[in-house]
Write a structure and sequence with these properties.
The structure holds three protein chains of three kinds. Chain A has a single domain, classed as RNA polymerase II/Efflux pump adaptor protein, barrel-sandwich hybrid domain (OB fold (Dihydrolipoamide Acetyltransferase, E2P), Beta Barrel), CATH 2.40.50.100. Chain A contains four helices and nine strands, in the order βββαβββββααβα. In chain B, helix 6 packs parallel to helix 7. Chain B has a seven-stranded mixed beta sheet, sandwiched between helices. The longest helix of chain B has 38 residues. Chain B folds into two domains: 109 residues, Aspartate Aminotransferase, domain 1 (Alpha-Beta Complex); 255 residues, Aspartate Aminotransferase, domain 2 (3-Layer(aba) Sandwich). Classes of the chains: A alpha+beta, B alpha/beta, C alpha/beta. Chains in contact: A-B, A-C, B-C.
Amino acid sequence: MNIPQNLSYTKSHEWVLFLNETTARVGITDTAQQLLGDLVYINLPEVGDSVVSGDTFSDVESVKAVSDIYSPVTGEISAVNEELKDAPQKMNTAPYDSWLIEVKNITGQEKLLTAEQYAKICAEEEAH
Amino acid sequence: MSYIPSSQQERQEMLQTVGVAAMDNLFAVVPSALQIKQLNLPSAKSELEVSRMMRKIAGKNRVFSSIFRGAGAYHHYIPAIVKSITAKESFLTAYTPYQAEISQGILQSIFEYQTMICELTGMDVSNASIYDGASAAAEAMTMCHERKRDRVLISATVLPMVIQTVQTYCNGNDMTVELIPEKSGVTDIEALETMLNDKTACVYLQQPNYFGMLEAAEKVGEAAHRAGAKFVMGINPIAAAVLKTPRDCGADIAVGEGQPLGMPLSFGGPYLGFMATNTAMTRRLPGRIVGETVDIEGKRAFVLTLQAREQHIRREKASSNVCSNQALCAMTASVYCSAMGPSGLQEVANQCHAKAHYAARQISAIPGFALRNQGEFFHEFLTETPCRAETVLAKLAEKDILGGYPVSNGILWCVTEMNSKAQIDALTTALKEVSLACN
Amino acid sequence: MQLIFERSRAGRSCSILPACDVEKTALPETMKRASAPRLPMVSEIDLSRHYTELEKHVHGVNDGFYPLGSCTMKYNPQIDEEIAALPGFTGVHPLQPMDTVQGSLEVLVTAKTMLCEITGMDDMTFQPAAGAHGELTGMLMIKAYHQSKGNTERNKMIVPDAAHGTNPASAAMAGFTVINVASNEKGCVDLDQLRKAVGPDTAGLMLTNPNTVGIFDENILEITKIIHEAGGLNYYDGANLNAIMGIVRPGDMGFDVVHLNLHKSFATPHGGGGPGSGPVGCKAFLAPFLPLNNPAFSADGTYCLSQPEQTIGSVKAFYGNFLVVVKAFTYLLTLGAEGVPEVARNAVLNANYLRVLLSKKYDIAFNEICMHEFVMSLSRMHRENGVSAMDIAKAILDNGMHPPTMYFPMIVEEALMVEPTETESKETLDKVAEIYLGIYDQAITNPQSLHDAPLTTPVRRLDEVGAARNPRVRYQFES
């Protein structure tokens, strides 16, 4: 399993990279992209939108399904990764390089998991 | 006769295999108090009896030999090959082409239809059809709905049934609908400018409009865009063969009623709604879309694509609920456009224009039948009437002529390639008589 | 196969119109198209051959067994087509005076009377052009009803998680918030979950019975009562009517408004995806909300179009897919009082017969007496042999048959939903069972062969990912 040490994780398979105390980037994990299959499109929010920890901020499409992506933090969107609109496959091939949104003015976050904790959850899910 | 092949003997054998004594046992789970004792319907009929009954009912309708009425449904010539191709049993009875490997015929025909709609409208992408022009207009409004933009501005010169349908749909999607006033038979652009603001989602214009007039579409589009709103045009597909395309008029979305492309009048349906847009708005289109791809051997093939927009995947998050569309009518339109070809379709359009202008000159010269509006028109025009429209039309009906449609104290006439010069002259003669009788 | 544009040759055309017999006119230059639309330039023989070739790559009901669950792909009678093509029906303009269209109105009013009798409703509109369109109409009527009573807070529509995707989509389009309620282990509505889901904000429930796994919910009266007691209305999705028509009426089961799919139970052809027709019937108290131009009797005994007092407006122009209604009406007259329940009985018998034959090897999701359809689950096959419902379906294609509905309803894993309909013969069902059981064995002995299926179809498995990532949705002419 590909689970970089320097990131934080959620149970719903998102990763978070804090750029500083109040700014972070969010993406989906390698496990997520394996579960979702070949991704064909992402519906991104707009810069300036607010996000709330635990709420959906985006969805990704594969050929036969749509999946919600949840925000691990509360704040304001300062950037979205436009590149992914034309090349959604990057989320499959390089999930940890393909950040979806950058959030600033973070005022809250859910209880995030370390790499070890996330790895444990993934192993449990697979065994199920 | 219920088209059930199995004999009594076979039904018994099947019941035995299932392990029940009689058919009724299969419905044991239905509360007996609810089970119907006797349906109050006429008894079953043989094919011959049904044929006689239905032909008798059809005989109670009056089919006019001379038709000068449009107002949303148009009388055009349907080439024989259109009817014979669309009657082929496999095309007629096939299901939606979800199993692409055995449905390439349907999928390719939809791809061809999509291409032809793009050619007529100048747009980049078309869907596989929606129910009719009015519902296409309504769905287009939803396409333009943004979080901060929920106002629809629709011209008063649009077909009233389209306006009604847009209003009905907007009761569901929380968009407000306002009418842009009409002035001299066309959209009042000055009034439009005062109505536009930063909450306007879109401006809807019909070309040619309900009164047959040609609108200054580009000016309307420019005004809409200056306010950050989208510009949606509802067009007549025959006129589209000769008029500036919605794309060239600056439209973001083009919709319309496809009935003129090979579908008979048939008391209002089945008709055809087409929807086309630019590449940027592709994923906002409702309904099915066919795309080109390859199979595992590299062979060109067609498949339903971008399905993650649709209801069977998004459910309550889908932007539209549409499932079944007007597929066979879309094929009808493709066959019609192929049978006519570019020169043929332009010939239809030019003849409609020429004959309508000939008729307008003749009719407006008759006392009491002056043209209501000055300006360019396509194949419909509104005239005054010297006495009640109903009286005029009743007189025409005596001569087997279906006259124009009564609209705002006048009569809206439509002339197509189906109206010969002789028919138009006969109409004129009849109207002259009416004019004299009225005075 | 060539595209029609690839058959096109400059200068070719069909000769359809005579020369214009009046003076030519011109459009102002500023209004003209820059260039002609690039429509095909073909002669009639090209057109004939083109569509003949396309037809060979289409599977119609006339081509073979078509067991699509919830689609009711029954035989489409030829007499219905012949009647719908009569000039008396096709040549009539929708805006003709009432006295010249009494035949068309008679079709609509009489069909309405018969369909109201079958569904237990009091009035009906034929305006919706498809089932989903009917659902939207019904949803808007329910919304208008609650608004007319001042109950604007009733904005929640309850939908079972097993429902067809159009149900929640239609409710959302009408402005309702969808409350999903879980199914119980029998695939039926979980009564406890339902009781928890209702409240003073309940607008209604959308349901189909039999449900999407082909089971008749025996708690139906309790279900509709729960909604009524909470102040909501019950909407019936008529997609599965083929199982119960003439046996029991939705109106007697507690439903207030229903839609029918004429292109399902009423034998009108599917046309490759339409045109269908989705009439909406309702109880008398909802009739004032029906769409405009409702076919009816007028005071003097003639037929007319009436305008309901509190109408929701229109969901499309004119009165509906009229010729489709003609076909359904012709079919209904053929069936008559005896034929309607006979259809339901034999649809249910055929489904149970095939279910029993297939249950020899396949896992049937709810293996008890079913209605007109049943669901097989390939979940165990997938876990043990790696063969999915998709693989089985593709193998069925290699046997020259159309597969059942795949991956619906979502409450059954690896689902294949089978609906034979009443118009299939016993020997067809026997043959189908033989083929399906053979594929089952193949899945166990040679799973890889199914992953590669289909092998014998005109094209094999398609690159759908590529089609969605880089959509090519029109023919591109070489500039």
